[in-house]
Amino acid sequence: MPNEYVEPVGNRILVRKDESRGQTRGGIVLPSDAEIPTITGRVVEISAMVERDADFPVRKYDKVLYHPKRSIPVDLEADNRLFVVPIADVCAVFRRSTEPVGTGELEIAEESGEGGAAGTA
């Protein structure tokens, strides 16, 4: 049986939503009924349209912050953490830099798509 996969079309990407946290960064354990909305995830697939568009420096495996309101859940896996997200709802892409914060200008991915922030793969 062939493997199933999702290929987004138009100006969309496929994101695997990060796990919800049961504890704050400071170490406070949250009660099970408390819910912190998770709006970050890893890009799993990119539509051909987004891949060609130099205005959106999003690549496969990038960690992104996105607005979840128009995200469409994909019922392909048991844990149901896949979402098709319009590229316009991506608010930020997380990048790593070799410079400490505050010592220089922020590195922005080149529009040509040839590079990006140092330390990304």
From TrEMBL:
Protein name: 10 kDa chaperonin
Record-linked CDD domains: cpn10
Family: Belongs to the GroES chaperonin family.
Taxonomic superkingdom: Bacteria
Region described as Disordered: spans on this chain: 102-121
The entry's keywords: Chaperone
Organism: Alienimonas chondri
Record Gene3D superfamilies: GroES chaperonin
InterPro entries in UniProt: Chaperonin_GroES (IPR020818), Chaperonin_GroES_sf (IPR037124), GroES-like_sf (IPR011032)
